[in-house]
Amino acid sequence: MDIHDHLKMALAALMANKLRSSLTMLGITIGNASVIAMVAIGQGTQKLAAEQFESLGPNVLFVSLGSERVRRDLSSKMKPLLLDDAEAIAKLIPSVSDVSPEIHLSDLITYRDQLFKNGIVGASPDYLLVRNYQLAQGRFINKIDLRRTNRVVVLGAEIAQRLFPKQDPIGQQIRIKNLTFEVIGTLAPKGALFDSNQDNKVIVPLTTAENQLRGQTSPHGIPLTLIAMLAQDQETVPSAEFQVKNLMRLRHPLASEDDINIYSQNALLESASKTNAGLTRMLAAIASISLLVGGIGVMNIMLVSVTERTQEIGLRKALGAQESDILGQFLIEAVLLATLGGAIGVSVGIGGTIIASSVSSLVTSISPVSIIAAITVSGGIGLFFGVFPAKQAAKLDPIIALRSS
Fold it and tell me: Where would I find the ABC3 transporter permease C-terminal domain in this sequence (predicted)?
């Protein structure tokens, strides 16, 4: 018998027991739908992570110094990261084009009847370029603001909308730590970076944050939370990282190798991608358990089918059918069951993913490779779990089969 005849007989056998065939395919369908959905979510998350890290800015590097304890303890023997360090980087590292020293604080912000605690960034004029922000309106902090320690503030898109939903924020006054600040500008929306909302920024001049908001002093100079900087181009990022680290070693001899932390956008993205890839594989592995259960269901139903069709098997063998013919017929039935169930599962998975992403903030990305792999794996499961029942059918003695009927 050729493959065409086997297919016709397999389809006829499956159609003869429609309900049983449908229930058998259900396990494979659920398994494939789960795998497609989990992989789509995982790949969508990876894509989102890449887009979010790109929003940090091109060729960006971040430098911090010491453990969290050292950064908070300004009386520590090891000097904290200083404004002098940022100035030294800008002056001595030729592969770095722009430098943005930053102080990160958290304090109470009030406007009329609104009161909440929010993150505050003390920054320099280069912050806008290095951090890849765009102004929506007004102006940004300038050198005069730094020199005079002006009480001016630039608001992120979300917090500006929160404070001034129906009015122009420029020229309005808010209070930070019971000090009055004038709003001079707002930033264009940028989105979230993992658990950090980049549109919830409150930015004040670096000197104002140090002298009027922080309330602490250091004998070494103005302590910073971190220094952000831009390399000249993508090719100079490794050399900039190397040169900055060597400079920090010279300027902070008490700092150990682990105390000098330098992160590049590419390194952060690679780390996040590895984490997301691992989570995607884990989710796909968990969802694949349903496929295993579906495969066992296929084997179970095929064994029942062999028992029910002993007369048919005996008659065909008595009429000259070879063991390979019987084996082929039952294998094709098993593969057909699994493949059809897999195809339906892929359709359900794609449809469910599209609906979920359209009605929620769920990020998904459907890959053609995962679709092809899911259907191929389904057929393979049918083949694997169909071998044993098919062999049982092929080995039946025709005389015993006919008598048992």
Answer: 285-398
Mean pLDDT of the chain: 80
Interhelix angle 3-16/18-54, nearest 10 degrees: 100
Please choose, from the candidates 57, 89, 104, the residue with its C-alpha nearest in 3D space to the C-alpha of residue 269. 57
Residues in the chain: 405
Helix, strand or coil, per DSSP, at residue 365: coil
Report how far residue 304's alpha carbon sits from residue 337's, in angstroms, rounded to the nearest whole number: 14
Scanning 257-367, the segments in alpha helix (DSSP H) are 265-308, 310-318, 323-359
Residue with tokens 């390194």: 267
CA distance linking residue 30 with residue 342, whole number of Å: 9
**Mind listing the pLDDT tens digit for each residue in 199-229?**
888 999 999 999 999 876 667 788 899 999 9
- d(C-alpha 14, C-alpha 238), whole Å: 62
Average pLDDT over residues 282-296: 72
CB 331 within 8 A of CB 324: no
Alpha carbon 383 to chain centroid, angstroms: 35
Three-class DSSP category at 55: coil
User: Any idea where the domains of the chain sit in the sequence?
Assistant: 3-52+271-404, 67-254
Query: What's the pLDDT score for residue 136?
Result: 93
Contact in structure between 265 and 59 (CB atoms under 8 Å): yes
Residue 191: how many other CB atoms lie within 10 Å: 13
Q: Kindly tell me if the per-residue pLDDT of 162 is higher than 80.
A: yes
* pLDDT, tens digit (0-9, with 9 covering 90-100), for 80-98: 889 999 999 999 999 999 9
The span from the CA of 242 to the CA of 258, in Å, is 14
